[in-house]
Structure formats: C-alpha cells, structure tokens
Design a protein that fits this description.
The protein has helices at 14-28, 35-39, 43-55, 120-134, 149-157; strands at residues 3-8, 63-70, 74-84, 103-111, 139-145, 161-171, 174-184. By secondary structure, it is of the alpha+beta class. A hairpin with a 2-residue loop joins strand 6 and strand 7. Helix 1 crosses helix 3 (43-55). This is GNAT family N-acetyltransferase. InterPro entries: Acyl_CoA_acyltransferase, Bact_Acetyltransf, GNAT_dom. Residues 4-182 form the N-acetyltransferase domain.
C-alpha cells in the first residue's frame, strides 16, 4: 500500500524539484507555452534556484514543501512554494496596497503528472494552509494560466475563485494570459473525519 506525506524541502531535494518542474511543465503546458521555450529550460539552473530558495529564503514565511510517495521506495512527486505577496503577485497597474500584509502568494504547486490523482496536491495545499495560518496570513492568491484547466479546476474545487485580476506573460514574444485566484485562509484547521468515515 502506497502512502503519501508532505515535508519541508531540504537542499538535497533541489535537483529533484527542478526535474519535477520540467517534467510537469513539459506535459501540462505543452499547449500553452511555445515548445522551444519548454525544450530549452535548463534543469541545472532551476536546481540552483531551488537550492537557494530552500537554503536562503527571503523570510521565514517563504516555504518550499515537497510531496513524497512512499511505497517500497520513497519518491518526491510534487512541491509547493509560497511566500508573502510581493510585486510579482500584482496585476499590471495594480497598486502595491491591493495585496496588503496578510496575503500569501503561491508561486508553484505542481505534482508530476504520472503521480496525479493520488492526493498529493491536496496534501501540499493543506500543509501550506496550516503554515499560512501559523504565519498570520488571512488570504492567499495564485496565478494560473487561462489554458491550465487542471490547476484552475483543482483550486476552485478547494474553494478558490477568480478575484477579477488578469495579466498576460510575454513568453518569447507570445502573450500568455493568466488569471488570479484567491481564497480566505481558514482561521481554524479543518476537522478530521471521525474514524471509519
């Protein structure tokens, strides 16, 4: 029987996080982003960035979590990264005060497609929410590609909804539309179902 859990990322996870990011983007975004852009992403560069994010986060509220599938062996299968909302979380022309203190931004929430539909995304999101609550955040935001139906469907199924903000990323002279979703961070942990439920 396979088991899954979430833990904080460690420096030695950086290479595997980069591999998961590339594998997931190349499957999930193949119809959204130009193929040559996906093909030319540098895994070693991404690994260095993830190593820095894990070892030298800008603040204690910046977190990288990993999802682990444990069967006969343990596998890193996904990750989530978040931190206090900054200029990257804003829509074009939106004033900085639009996302005041108390707002956390999800920058990544990815599960490698071959490990999908096993609860890893839900566990990553749940563990993140627990940490956001501890850090005093009251609202969370995340950008999603308009064409990324899987991410939008996952987030909306857990209570997130569009907040009306939109932007278009310039990816090698191609404008790729995104929309921002948001959710209130619950003040209390979700209650555990009764035994046998």
């Amino acid at each position: 029987m396979a088991l899954g859990y979430v833990r904080p990322a460690r420096p030695e996870d950086a290479g595997e996080i980069a591999r998961i990011q590339l594998a997931t983007w190349r499957v999930a975004y193949r119809r959204i982003l130009p193929r040559h852009v996906l093909d030319n992403l540098d895994e070693a560069y991404l690994a260095r960035r993830w190593n820095a994010a894990v070892q030298e986060p800008p603040s204690g509220a910046h977190r990288v979590l990993v999802a682990v599938e444990q069967a006969e062996q343990s596998y890193l299968v996904g990750f989530a990264a978040s931190g206090p909302a900054d200029a990257e979380a804003l829509a074009p022309g939106e004033p900085a005060e639009a996302l005041a203190d108390g707002v956390v931004a999800v920058t990544d929430l990815l599960v490698e497609p071959r490990w999908g539909r096993r609860g890893h995304g839900s566990r990553l999101l749940s563990a993140s929410v627990d940490l956001w609550r501890e850090d005093g955040f009251t609202r969370a935001v995340a950008w999603a590609f308009d064409g990324d139906e899987a991410t939008r469907k996952f987030l909306t199924s857990t209570g997130w909804e569009p907040d009306g903000a939109a932007r278009a990323l310039d990816v090698d002279d191609m404008l790729v539309p995104q929309l921002r979703l948001h959710v209130a961070v619950p003040t209390e942990p979700a209650t555990e179902p009764a035994a046998g439920a």
